[in-house]
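Example complex used in Figure S2.
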Amino acid sequence: MYYPAALPKQITLSGLNIEYFDEGTGPVILYLHSNEGPNPDLALIQALTKTNRVVMPAMPGFGTSETASFIKTVDDLSYVALDLLEALDLNDVTVVGSSLGAWMAVELATKASPRIARLVLDNPLGLRFKTDPTEKQFPDIYQDLPAQWAGYFSASQPMDDRDWPSVERDIALRAARGREMFVKVGWSPYLNNPKLHGRVHRVTVPTLVLWGDQDKLANREYADAYVAALPNAELKVIAGAGHFAFLDKPEAVASAVLDFAGTKQNA
Amino acid sequence: MDVYYFSEQSHHPAWGNFDGMLRGDIPNKLGDPQVSSRLLNEYLDMYQLADQCGMNVMVNEHHIASTCMNNSITLTLAVLARITKNARLLGLGSIISNRPDPIRVAEEYSIVDSISGGRVDMGLVKGAGWELYASNANPVGGMDRLFEAHDLILAAMTRHEPFSWEGEHFQYRCVNLWPRPVQAPHPPVWFTGGSPGSARISAKYGYVNAAFLTGPGAIPTFQAYRETYKETFGKEAAPDRLAYLGMMACSRDKAQTERNVEAMLAYLASVARMRPAHVNPPGYSHHQANTEMMQTPPSAGGGPAGFASASPDDLAKAGIMFWGEPERIYDQIAAYNEMVGGFGHLLIMGQNAHQPYEDVRDSLEMFGEFVLPELAKIGTSATSTSKESVNA
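Predicted assembly (659 residues):
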């Protein structure tokens, strides 16, 4: 699911050349991608562009977007998303994020931009609720080869069986860059930002948390705790979806996003 | 050519009870503290014997591993500084890309250099991929941390007024190294480099580049070093800029040879016993290099694990393990040296896990008496690496 080419548009944010996608008309959705990077071919993106303007950057280190030594955390990445909201003068924005991108959306929303109207968090990461330091919140996927990660993420595509020697070089490069950035920001603390607990009270916009009931990375207890941690959130369970609900059940995720945003769906 | 004796200091008695990964996964409940105590003392005895036999010594460091109990190079070197007399004391290497406190590394090397009267060789390394799971250092940016830590350690050893350091990765209000190392301006630095790319980095600094168990892979690696060294310094790299590590067991007869070869093969088979993901977590290698690796179809061989099915003769020719009676060992080493274009330091893994104390003692004594004096002649006269007979 790595996209085979650069996204069509370029912009400079935080001094970095960032590629992004910006298509469709209607209310604005900012989509923050998962650790597999942005992909306009995803059914979810195709569905959302029918009724909405969808802006989807490749965050620093993903796709061909530049990164820099000052990008070390998801919090750091979220400032680039904040820059994008301002640079494109986006207003009344529904921020949708998947997995790592959902974590980024929460980090972004703690900056309390008046441009953000609501959040949809598709299987978010980023908070740790366990208090025993010897207890894992998530299985340690970094103990496995990247080809095996898909087994944690997707209920419909349990293994990554791409034949890397035969794919286009740009796809392999985008995959290698994305994996590197995912490890850089996710390694330690593992897939969470301890400071976020002290900041989530600032996320006052209406928030919909989606959880795939086949998620092998974060369980139902985690999703419930996440909803409870946010001031104004509700949970919707996506049946049959894994951690990458956007991949496993794109229609259900699209429909949940549009319902929550109050967008009319004619399809 | 000079020789450094080295042992990984394994806790191999635990391996028989465990089928899984010998690094990371093997629980320490399988290690008997009384056995650890006995083995570690034996390993120190062997280091002491190597010194008495005219060799230098090398110590390495790993964590979360039953294959290498030594978890602190400088701690063991501090012991060796007192119980050896003449040996150079090589630590190869301290994993400075993973250590949060490079000044501590500088302090410890400095005190070992001081106690030993200036016998330390300081190996500064990035460490294997699986070390990241022990230290929890981020796989991304390891080389940047390595070079900043290196710069800081050398600054601490060579600047003789207190100074502050506000780098990207490390910050100190007051760096003021007491004691200063005995060797001036600082103990010699060694890097590990098992590929042409990493050897070129060592060559730019003019440091000793050590290749571990790379076999014929040392040919392009050493060639890359020589080319870059000449480009950088305008002269040929002396043989003492290059080092190679192979396994070695010297024996007096057929029965002892068979025991030694069996122990070496068992060690070789243990090398691959780690999680595949631990070899190269994303970011440990740069994404450009990872792209190349992803797009290269898998091939047989490469690295010590690839030699697991080779015969002992093939392994000797490849420079992976040198074995047999003294004359044969000399011939194997001289032939390998010639094949790779010459190197100045032979690092011998001279104690191979299950190899018993008595066999290691015999091996070191025979090697010291019969092989070492002949190896000392290699590289001293122009480019001579011709085979000479050894009176065993």
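Chain A has a mean pLDDT of 95. Strands of chain A lie at 9-13, 16-23, 28-32, 53-57, 93-98, 116-122, 207-212, 233-238.
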